[in-house]
Specification:
The chain contains three helices and five strands; from the N terminus they run ββαβαβαβ. The chain has about 110 residues and is of the alpha/beta class. The chain has a single domain (about 5-110), classed as STAS domain (Transcription Regulator spoIIAA), CATH 3.30.750.24. A five-stranded mixed sheet has the order 1-2-3-4-5, with helices on one face. Strand 1 and strand 2 (about 15-20) form a beta hairpin. The protein starts with 6 loop residues before the first strand and ends in a 9-residue tail after the last strand.
Length: about 110
């Protein structure tokens, strides 16, 4: 658990994975996730993968924070990946025009393999 958010953390094939174990809804605060990503970047772990609950939704606040995280990761020459993102999260990424900058994996087993 990271802070008050239910987040599990693991490293798989060079990716720091954060499994967000609670459903994100309108008004969810993901600032602790951002802080965890900043900590990873500080110690040069630049490949980050996120796994959200399938029914999660990124409202404008969390979507903005995620976009900031993507920018930080890219500035460190890293990669942001999503594992099995739900349609609502993919739709938001497309609306923000950042979907081409994010790697999509079908499962944790696929991380780093392509």
């Amino acid at each position: 658990m990271v802070g008050d958010m239910l987040i599990e953390s693991a490293i798989v094939r060079g990716y720091q994975i954060f499994r967000i174990k609670e459903k994100l809804t309108c008004g969810s605060d993901i600032s602790q996730l951002k802080a965890s990503i900043e900590e990873c970047l500080h110690v040069r772990r630049v490949n980050i993968a996120l796994s959200f609950e399938p029914s999660s939704y990124l409202s404008s606040g969390p979507a903005g924070v995620l976009t900031q995280c993507l920018k930080m990761i890219l500035e460190h020459s890293g990669n942001l990946a999503l594992i099995r993102p739900g349609g609502r999260i993919l739709d938001r990424l497309i609306a923000l025009d950042v979907d081409s900058l994010v790697k999509i994996y079908g499962s944790e087993d696929d991380i780093g393999r392509y």
